[in-house]
Amino acid sequence: MDEKATYCIKINLPGGVVSAGDLYELLLIAENAGATNIQIGNRQQLFFHIEASQLEDMETDMLSAEISYEINEEEFPNIISSYVTDAIFNTESWIKEGVYKDIFDLFNFKPRLKINLVDRQQTFVPFFSGNFNFITSDVSNYWYLYVRFPKTGDIYCWPSLIYSDDIPLISKIAEKVIIDHKELFYDQQQTDHLKFHELVTAGSDLVNQPITEALKLPDFQLPYYEGFNRYLNNKYWLGIYRRNELFPITFMKDICTICLKNRVGQLYTTPWKSLLIKGINEPDRKEWGIILNKYRVNVRHASNELNWQLENLNSESLQLKQELVREFEEYDLRTYRLCFAIKMQPKTGLPGSIIIKKHKQDVFDILHTHDFNPNSRNYVSYKTKVKRADLGPCIMELCNHFYGILIDDNVLLSQTADKKDDKQADKEVDYIYQCKSCFSIYDKTYGDIVNGIAAGTDFESLDTYSCPVCESGKDSFILLENRLTSIK
Q1: Do both 351 and 481 map to the same domain?
Q2: Is the N or the C terminus of the chain less surrounded, counting Cβ atoms within 10 Å?
Q3: Residues 421 and 354 in one domain
Q4: Are residue 336 and residue 477 in the same domain, yes or no?
């Protein structure tokens, strides 16, 4: 063992929830091992770093406390959920605290693929960033299931609703099918959905409910998730975001202490790498204010700094984000209803309205979802091979383009899609094609700015065409009618 090495320790918090007492115990272990900060990941997990000389003692403490962890690995992704939104960002759904906890308790295995449990009434937690994406239906205790096969953009809508108690079971079976048949379902350009369904259902006894209505997702809006905010029963919730993504352990210990003193039982981590505390009573606000003052914690950042998705523990992404946010502030850019993702690694699965994707050192491609909803998985290439210094102006231009679309009655985004009849909707998706090599989208609505193709140009009318991202030919594009129809 290299005594000078530094190890990254990862702890999963199923559903993004942890008791104040359990978190305090974890913080003590991290502090005793020499860590000074913890970080929150975009799957609601925790990270901290220690030196190699501290590893053996830390492992002993973790074993004694019965805390599961990983070292420099993420073999077992955290199960994420919209539990954090309950009662504050959404009050209309049938899914409540007890349902979430019952499902978490039924997981008798450690998933190796990503699982999302998400309420469709909210947009704070992403819908399709997992491999198994369970999304609430109108029927109490029944869920849509959208399978995103690993390392692909291929999404399959399971043909029936899943009962809450069956979520762990079908996740376990489906994961085994994918891992045992990687040549069919893992990192493949095309997958056989019928074969997958056949293998998962063979010999299983699942409670099924027919799908009577296609899933309809709400228009994306990111609620402001910082500061003190009043909600039900005259209580408050507090959201804390850290610009450098670092939460000092001493600060977190003080937070846990206040929670335990004032009987605030749980804390929540969010996919936006922030911390949220619910159930704060009015008389206790002063005490919370003292802690925020003690550590000089700002809880009123600008909205356009909060709406970013970055890869975990990636200083390059964080630095680029900070540069772009400064440009946005100087320009006074409006980013309402948009969010941004920076992808330094391929196939990270980060959701975003606008995607900044590394092409090579200090050169990037800019993409956006076809309707600027980050929960869409279908991308339009906007500009390729953009130098780092030119990213800010290009993204500002694209943001202005988005707001131009919103006020143009001739271009309808997702918020009006549900007003169209099925015949018109089917006619529109006929114009959307996807590159099999890199999953870029050609959408007739936008054309292709990179290749000089005007908006409204039919894909079929193009004599020749090459993908603006990977330069594959026209014959590498496939029609996406079925997949788009299933997601809308």
Answers
A1: yes
A2: N
A3: yes
A4: yes
- Buried-exposed string 279-310: b where 16+ CB fall within 10 A, e elsewhere: bbeeebeeebeeebeeeeeeeeeeebbbbbbb
Instruction: State how beta strands 160-163 and 46-51 pair.
Output: unpaired
Domain boundary among 71, 102, 117: 71
Contact (Cβ atoms closer than 8 angstroms) between residue 179 and residue 200: no
From CA 273, how far away is CA 433, in angstroms rounded?
34
Give the number of other Cβ atoms within 10 Å of residue 233's Cβ: 8
Question: Total domain count for the chain?
Answer: 3
408 found inside a domain: yes
Q: Which H or E run contains 423? A: helix 422-429
Is 241 domain-assigned?
no
- Domain residues for the domain of 47 are 6-71
Whether residue 278 lies inside any domain: the answer is: no
CA 174 to chain CA mean position, Å: 21
- The neighbour count for residue 450, using CB atoms within 10 Å, is 18
Question: In terms of domains, do 105 and 31 share one?
Answer: no
Select from 346, 313, 350, 315 the least CA-distant residue to 10.
313
Last residue of a domain, one of 179, 210, 241: 210
Provide φ and ψ at 81, rounded to 5°: -150, 165
395 and 479 in a single domain? The answer is yes
Cα separation, 343 vs 434, in Å, equals 20
Task: Let me know whether 414 and 460 are in one domain.
Answer: yes
**Residue 375: its H or E element:** none
State the Rg of the chain over Cα: 23
Q: What are the angstrom distances between the C-alpha of 107 and each of 115, 154, 170?
A: 11, 26, 11
Interatomic CA distance for residues 11 and 342, integer angstroms: 24
Does residue 216 form part of some domain?
Answer: no
Domain harbouring 54, CATH code:
3.30.70.2030
Q: Are residues 318 and 427 in the same domain?
A: yes
Instruction: Give dist(CA 167, CA 157) in Å, integer.
Output: 15
